[in-house]
């Protein structure tokens, strides 16, 4: 079987690191709203691939994460005056209902949550800071893209071609805090409004350890 390698831009023979063992990670949804076709499309495609690999006799470890820490989740919680957990629980359940309707093989799917791996995330971010690949600015932590060799290679974009704010993710408050406008956020400090509503998820608590 051949698959397209985004890094080399070529179709290559699919080879497992360990014989007959396949590890698949598929980026899952940010659970602040109902699933849309953009969420469903890759899930159906990779579920089909997973089934085929199992049909060929492979032992497949298949992981689809839930991003349950995010500005969109927090904003919805603030808007509806509920906790972030209430938001994410609601839309994880909706996701599972949709997955059943799409006939996805949930029996053999692992769903880690960002909030369940927060200690690992903290350690990883701290290591990046220690290696000077990331930096703290006014309580937030940003990744320094100048420290990443061939940054943009996978997307096929040169840094010079990337237009500031094109993704609609540029916050005016970040402009004076970044070394480079293209540096992206790894960690955000908790805001007063979030504290007042008790929205204290792991990724938004004050970073005493970083």
Provide structural commentary.
The protein is of the alpha/beta class and 210 residues long. It folds into 2 domains: 111 residues, HUPs (Rossmann fold); 90 residues, no CATH class. Helices cover 31% and strands 16% of the residues. The chain contains 5 helices and 8 strands, in the order E-E-E-H-E-H-H-E-H-E-E-E-H. It has a 3-stranded parallel sheet with strand order 3-4-5, with helices on one face. A 3-stranded antiparallel sheet has the order 6-7-8. The protein has a two-stranded antiparallel sheet with strand order 1-2. Strand 3, helix 1 and strand 4 form a beta-alpha-beta unit. The longest helix is centred in the first third of the chain and has 19 residues. It starts with a strand and ends in a 14-residue tail after the last helix. The relative contact order is 0.13. The C terminus is likely disordered.
């Amino acid at each position: 079987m051949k698959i397209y390698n985004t890094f080399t831009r070529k179709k290559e023979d699919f080879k497992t690191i360990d014989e007959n063992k396949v590890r698949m990670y598929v980026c899952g949804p940010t659970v602040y709203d109902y699933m849309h076709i953009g969420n469903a499309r890759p899930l159906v495609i990779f579920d089909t691939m997973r089934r085929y690999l199992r049909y060929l006799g492979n032992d497949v470890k298949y992981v689809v994460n839930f991003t349950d820490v995010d500005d969109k989740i927090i904003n919805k919680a603030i808007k509806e005056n509920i906790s972030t957990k209430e938001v994410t629980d609601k839309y994880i359940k909706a996701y599972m209902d949709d997955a059943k309707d799409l006939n996805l093989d949930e029996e053999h799917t692992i769903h880690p949550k960002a909030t369940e791996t927060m200690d690992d995330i903290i350690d990883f971010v701290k290591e990046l800071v220690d290696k000077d690949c990331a930096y703290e600015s006014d309580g937030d932590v940003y990744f320094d893209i100048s420290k990443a060799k061939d940054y943009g290679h996978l997307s096929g974009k040169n840094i010079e071609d990337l237009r500031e704010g094109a993704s609609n993710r540029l916050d005016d408050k970040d402009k004076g805090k970044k070394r480079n406008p293209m540096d992206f956020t790894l960690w955000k400090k908790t805001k007063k409004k979030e504290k007042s509503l008790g929205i204290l998820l792991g990724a938004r608590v004050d970073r005493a350890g970083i």
